[in-house]
Specification:
By secondary structure, the chain is of the alpha/beta class. It has a five-stranded mixed sheet with strand order 1-2-4-3-12, with helices on one face. A four-stranded mixed sheet has the order 5-6-8-7, with helices on one face. It has a three-stranded mixed sheet with strand order 9-11-10, covered by helices on one side. Strand 10 and strand 11 form a beta hairpin. The longest helix has 31 residues. The chain starts with a strand and ends with a strand.
Length: 242
């Protein structure tokens, strides 16, 4: 059955409502301008969703202003001297001429990208992102080995991909986790936080507060606070219980 959708507007603020087979109602604000999307359970009436939207209008406007006031990210050209992040630290990109294939390296405050020819911005981006992917894929297995026994959950498959609005996502049926490639730009603590968050989702679609058991294992839920200063959630998404 296809999802039912509707667009409503209150006091100049529009929202797109989609009714789904879910338990709770979610309000999401999409960057860069804070476009409002509401996911509602099938049992929730149009009047109830509209009332909730009206109730949250002040919060929505506040978050929209915050989104719209953020400076637009610079257009990356992957040229000499351009700033790129790796594991939470900024590095200046340095293009190095090299006839043989060589992996990017980090030294001091420089990130060296080796090329036979300067090529295009797309070529340089692909080389750097391929390296980013390999570095992130090296970090995940030891973190899984650390947290799977503590949470008492087993991941059958995990993958890395570019995502615009999520740091991570999971499939609770297939026990599969997807992680955002851009996590490699954040501190290791942020990568670990997102991974644990998704592991907990495999036990509880909506995580509850965690409890550290006497044997050192972790119950469903997340015990540590998100490192918010370094990891900004791409989408504002409050959950509304109904």
């Amino acid at each position: 059955m296809s999802a039912r959708t509707k667009t409503i507007e209150i006091d100049g603020v529009q929202a797109e409502i989609t009714w789904k087979q879910i338990k709770n109602c979610y309000i999401r604000l999409r960057p860069p301008d804070g476009r409002v999307q509401i996911s509602a359970p099938q049992r929730m009436s149009n009047q109830a969703v509209t009332a909730l939207f009206r109730e949250r209008l002040d919060w929505i406007r506040k978050k929209q202003r915050a989104m719209q006031s953020r400076p637009a990210p610079p257009t990356l050209r992957y040229l000499d001297g351009e700033e790129h992040f790796y594991l939470g630290r900024p590095y200046r990109l340095q293009l190095q001429h090299c006839y043989r294939k060589r992996q990017p390296t980090v030294a001091g405050d420089a990130l060296f990208l080796y090329l036979k020819t300067q090529g295009t911005a797309e070529t340089r981006e692909r080389l750097l992102h391929d390296w980013y992917r390999r570095q992130l894929e090296k970090l995940i297995p030891p973190l899984l080995s650390k947290w799977e026994p503590l949470i008492d959950v087993k991941v059958k498959e995990w993958r890395v991909r570019k995502m615009k609005t999520r740091w991570g996502t999971c499939n609770t049926v297939a026990h599969r986790i997807w992680l955002n490639l851009d996590l490699i730009k954040k501190p290791v603590e942020c990568i670990e936080y997102v991974l644990v968050h998704e592991l907990v989702h495999l036990l509880e679609p909506v995580p509850q507060p965690a409890v550290l058991r006497p044997d050192g294992s972790l119950s469903a839920g997340l015990a540590t606070a998100a490192p918010d200063a370094a990891l900004k959630t791409p989408v504002f998404r409050p959950r509304i219980n109904i």
